[in-house]
Design brief:
Helix content: under 10%
Mean pLDDT: 94
CATH superfamily of the largest domain: Glycosyl hydrolase domain, family 43
Shape: globular
Largest sheet: 8 strands, antiparallel
Length: 525
């Protein structure tokens, strides 16, 4: 009989709700650090800190300077793929892949003495083809670089090989021979990703995933007595997956894992998973699951074999961080770590100081539909049920001027709740799906300050406006499935925030936002 856990004995997954895909973790003494993918969003590679593996606080981002990260013209779900974070001899290392960059692209390394930064400019690794890079600092002082390469994309798309090669510790360039160490646990396995090699005692373990990053995602393990192989697969592979549970399991698409050991010798894994069956908007989130060892092979979530929403806590002192206010009042002089932009900003089009207590956006010709850097300040959607509100003061100068709140998956797939119109101002909801736009609701606006509200209710988005007496009126109700991965595709979930655009024509108009409140309603799921 299973004895139920008391409340204080468990935690609730995911540990990083909202779109935090491809997690990598490292421990330094009693501190833990996670970095995740950010694709076309800037700043790049969000970084989190914990002391108990359950409570996490944002530290900021690894790539914060435009000269570090050129995302100009990057398409949806391109950009920064699958970082790995490691620590050695007082230095933090992050390696990552920049895909389809208009400048330097490929695999690179950045370093920092302090995880809060500053981080170095990228050092590009010549000849390091492929993606999902990882680092192994071996006991003998050697540094190994590991990545995945698609070997024959024309005739065998998705068939990949994991390779390993030594990296010079001063120049961060490849030296010596390349070793191909893995082609998959299953015959014709597709899309190996997140290959991490660990040295545990005298044995080297390769933990990777295969099957793609959707429902067929699966974690597999191999081991060797030599870092260069040959590697022998675990007879129990895959050691963790949800693909046999069907698309409506509680957590699907589990994979892309990284291991960490606590000071007491216990092992845990961070990994990505999907809670909303890819019909919702949350995207791939970061989960935590226990790992034990049996016959020198890892066993993920012993007794269940799956990632659980309620899981036993690590045997570490509970270390919660101060609660973050639901409302950002914009009283600071810089944006907090939850906010981000689409692609690299090349000019300062936002301000927290021109009108203290407000976020001011300069309207520019770029729109949310353009593959550019629009005037858009966004944060991740983290709950299926949520409530978000802001107040906007905005006087359009031309008919193309509009500003408001956007629920955004990508340029082709988003919903805008905007104030527009010269003379007769209106608040309207515009749904853009596959580059086709439709006005799904609108109402005249008579007050100088307009209060906009967006609420999520089990896959429905409700857009409301407050009248002069503070009464909320429904303008439109929209099914969010058009923003889901199953319709819109891509690797990232939905973000929402404040935007302004002059729709292709220069203007001097600005939009002032008096705070932004985001509240999850009920449990994260």
């Amino acid at each position: 009989m299973t004895v139920p856990l008391r409340h204080e004995e468990y935690f609730r997954n995911p540990i990083l709700p909202g779109s935090h895909p491809d997690p990598s973790i490292c421990r330094v003494d009693d501190d833990y650090y996670i970095v995740t993918s950010s694709f076309e969003f800037f700043p790049g590679l969000p970084l989190f800190h914990s002391r108990d593996l359950v409570n996490w606080r944002p530290l900021g981002h690894v790539l914060t300077r435009p000269e570090q990260l050129n995302l100009d013209g990057i398409g949806p779900s391109r950009g920064l793929f699958a970082p790995t974070i490691r620590h050695d001899n007082g230095v933090f290392y992050v390696t990552c892949t920049l895909v389809d960059g208009s400048g330097p692209s490929g695999n690179f390394i950045v370093t920092a003495d302090d995880p809060c930064g500053p981080w170095s400019d990228p050092i590009w690794i010549g000849g390091a083809d492929g993606f999902d890079p990882s680092l192994l600092f071996d006991n003998d002082g050697r540094l190994w670089f590991c990545a995945t390469t698609e070997t024959d994309p024309a005739d065998r798309p998705g068939r990949t090989t994991v390779w390993l090669q030594e990296l010079d510790r001063l120049s961060f360039q490849l030296v010596g021979s390349r070793f191909e160490i893995w082609t998959g646990a299953m015959r014709d396995a597709r899309w190996a990703e997140a290959p991490h090699v660990y040295r545990i005692g005298d044995t080297y373990y390769l933990v990777t995933a295969e099957g793609g990053t959707s429902f067929e995602h699966a974690v597999v393990v191999a081991r060797s007595d030599n870092v260069a192989g040959p590697y022998v697969g675990c007879p129990r592979n895959p050691v963790l997956t949800a693909r046999h549970l069907g698309p409506h399991a509680t957590v699907t698409a589990t994979g892309h894992t990284d291991l960490v050991q606590t000071p007491d010798g216990a092992w845990w894994a961070v990994l990505l998973g999907v809670r909303d069956q890819e019909t919702g908007c949350l995207g791939r989130e970061t989960f935590l699951t226990p790992v034990e060892w049996d016959a020198e092979w890892p066993v993920f979530s012993r007794g269940t074999g799956r990632v659980r929403l309620h899981e036993r806590r690590p045997e570490l002192p509970n270390a919660p961080w101060p609660t973050v206010a639901a409302n950002d009042s914009f009283d600071a002089t810089t944006l907090g770590p939850s906010w981000m932009f689409v692609r690299t900003p090349r000019e300062q089009w936002w301000s927290l100081t021109q009108r203290p207590g407000h976020l001011r956006l300069q309207l520019r010709p770029e729109t949310l539909a353009d593959q550019a850097n629009p005037s858009f300040v966004a944060r991740r959607l983290q709950h299926r049920n949520f409530s978000a509100h802001t107040s906007i003061e905005f006087e359009p100068q031309f008919n193309g001027d509009c500003a408001g709140v956007a629920v955004y998956h990508s340029g082709p797939h988003h919903i805008r709740f905007e104030v527009a119109g010269v003379g007769r101002r209106v608040a309207r909801v515009i749904r853009r799906l596959a580059d086709t736009e439709e006005i799904v609701g609108q109402r005249d606006v008579e007050t100088a300050t307009v209060r906009l509200g967006v609420e999520g209710r089990q896959g429905l988005l409700e857009f409301r406006i407050a009248d002069g007496e503070g009464n909320w009126q429904l303008i439109a109700q929209v099914d969010s499935v058009g923003l889901s991965a199953s319709v819109a595709g891509g690797f990232f979930g939905v973000v929402m925030g404040m935007f302004g655009t002059s729709s292709g024509i220069p203007t001097t108009a600005v939009a002032d936002f008096d705070g932004f409140e985001y509240v999850g309603v009920g449990p994260c799921c």
